[in-house]
Specification:
Elements: H1 19-47, H2 55-87, H3 95-142, H4 144-148, H5 154-163, H6 175-195, H7 204-218, H8 222-285
Helix pairs in contact: 1-2, 1-3, 2-3, 2-8, 3-8, 5-6, 6-7, 7-8
Length: 287
Amino acid sequence: MSSMVVEEVAYPVTPEFSWSAVIAGALAAAAVIFLLLFIGSGVGLSLVSVPQANAQTAQSAITLGAIYFFAAQAFGFAVGGYLAGRLMGPVLENEDEELFHATTHGLVVWALGVVATATVIAISGLALFSSALNATAIVSSANQTNQREAAMPTTMGYWTDVLFRPAGQSVAPNAESMGGQSEAKAEAGRILTVGLPRGEKLSQADHDQLARLVSQTTGAEMSEAARRVDDVQTRIRQDEVAAAEAARKLAKYVSIWLAASLCFGALVAAGAAVSGRWIDDKTRIGV
């Protein structure tokens, strides 16, 4: 009577959580994400021509960039989660425990990868900000005299021109009137710059002074000059509101894409870790 000998594969009992596997996977994920982001940035910049850029081009670039970031992060966490699953090592456990442990390793790879990526981005941003501050200080010191004599900002200069547009038919200005108009515009620009904090209106004194300057320079009636001042205030306020609304929409858009990409990255990392764990089991037993 023959007896059957069953060879048992003895798996060593190792800790249920392997930090070495998780750290290796997180580093690999962060490296792959950064590599893909750098490649994508270079390709994207090469496809965009500055002279041909417009608002629609910028919106399309943002959308494509968000999709690419979504894909790059998913691929990076897939690599990191898979490595963590393969490096966990054999553990005596049933299928439910194996699924839980592999998923946990993948999620921790994702968490460490997000922290590492955010830290590098923050450090890079601080370095760039510090360099920009130093460069600004050097340029400001070198050109301090020129800056004192610089013209008004383009935006505020435009609104000043709107205020001092000729009323009706006007004769060609002579040198004396041009000099007076320049002084009036300079004062009006200072009033608009200082007297119009963001979201606020001109004080009554500043409003009346602007109206007098406009009336004296353009020959318009005081009522017409006051109407111009009110119209400019309204349009400046509308531009500020439009800019703030555009910034709000962009921030909302970016936040939603980031949240979605992070959630998807977590799922990909967990799934890749489980897949890596199963492949590791099959490889060890020769299936």
